[in-house]
Amino acid sequence: MPASVLQKVPMLDFSRQFAPIRQEILNAIAEVCDSQIFILGPKVAEFEEAAASACGASYAIGCSSGTEALWLALAAAGIGDSTSAKASLDSLDGVITSPFSFFATASSILRAGARPIFADIDPRTFNLSAESVEEVLSSPSGGPVRAVLPVHLYGQCADMDAFRELERNHPGLMIIEDAAQAFGAAWRDQPAGSLGSAAAFSFYPTKNLAAFGDAGLVTTSSAAIAERCRSIRTHGMTRRYFHDEVGWNSRIDAIQAAVLKVKLRYLPEGNQQRRARAARYDELFRAAGLVGTSVKEGIVLPWTDPRATHVFHQYVIRASRRDALREYMASQGVGSEIYYPVPIHLQAALKDLGHKPGDFPHSEAAAAEVLALPIYPELRDDEQQTVVEAIWRFYA
Ligand SMILES: *Cc1c(COP(=O)(O)O)cnc(C)c1O
After folding, report:
1. Distance between CA atoms of 271 and 273, rounded to whole angstroms?
2. Fewer CB atoms inside 10 Å of the end CB: C or N, the chain?
3. Reported pTM
4. How confident is the model at residue 86 (pLDDT cuts 50, 70, 90)?
């Protein structure tokens, strides 16, 4: 490979997205300031309507974070009992999910007063494997399993054909999507957020659709779940100071909704650019002769299921000597990140669940091998070349 000019490539650079829409965003924020309505209100309603329509869902309920959205979706669907004193773990409603995700996927289940049950991932997509879920379902233990919570990791939908079949074969089982990384993604052209009974999105500033702070959203096409989400996010208060149930303060700020409504219009184009950046990485890695089908042979490129519309929240390779590679890249000024270095079942906070290394081998292998490379709509071709050259030099 030719040596390119030395340049730093940051893992993220939000300023490039902000520059061209700066005035539009500032105007939207100014409107909120002028209205003096800072929590919920008309700006939030406008964003919710636009977001529901973008997700092909009947309802969208804004809230204060993706974590809160997961909790709200579970609570509103009647899963778990977050108001009771801590019962024994075994007697709680079970929710099956992936151990290879951000911690909030599992902690929100516990917060909802339910029990996270893990099943391993499909090593090609890094998403929860419906087959592993079926195995868990056929070896019952503890309380009833009420829901499956697949995560659309890195911006690619989990295998919803398989999860829908699971839903058909197990009456009463709900599918709740952790779509935190997948706004704009789709499965057979049906948008994330419309694929289960309810879905949770995050607008954390690194996500494809990013707020200027914390914010999240629940989408659903069930009027009952939507109504209960709205109630729970404001202390179970459907009439001012009359509380029908114990909810919480999970509200979204109007300033965040105003920012998000502006950015939502640019999201399809941004996601398209991410796909183009991903295809370009594939091309550069192949041209450099770096690609293998396992880490023993080379870099393993991300795999996109032909039924999925991937939005490349992350572009994640598998690599041998991953930590040394990452250190070398950092020494060359090239950013990268590991999502996630420790699978959830081995996190210290969850040791009471009683898991040990070896319980979910695909998740553990992924945690040891994955490396996320810089990807954002504004990433330049020469920067991608710099990234791939740095990796080439490490293995040369
Ligand atoms: C970001 C994220 C969350 C949590 O969202 P916050 O807005 O940070 O609370 C949950 N699940 C996944 C998969 C995420 O990536």
Report:
1. 5
2. C
3. 0.97
4. low
Which residue, judged by its Cα, is nearest atom 5 of ligand 1? 66
Using the mean position of ligand 1's atoms as its centre, give its distance from the Cα of residue 326 in Å.
24
Residue with CA nearest ligand 1 atom 2: 180
Q: What is the pLDDT of residue 90?
A: 81
Radius of gyration of the chain (CA): 21
Q: What is the pLDDT of residues 41-74, one digit of tens each?
A: 999 999 999 999 999 999 999 999 999 999 999 9
| Cα 149 from chain centre | 12
Q: Provide the b/e sequence for 327-352 (b: ≥16 CB within 10 Å).
A: ebbeebebbbbbbbeebbbbbeebee
Q: Which residues line ligand 1 (CB under 6 A)?
A: 65-67, 101-102, 104-105, 151, 178, 180-181, 202, 204, 214, 216
Distance 229 CA to ligand 1 centre (A): 18
The mean per-residue pLDDT over the stretch 132-155 comes to 92
Please write the tens of the pLDDT for every residue from 164-221: 999 999 999 999 999 999 999 999 999 999 999 999 999 999 999 999 999 999 999 9
Three-state DSSP state, 77 = coil
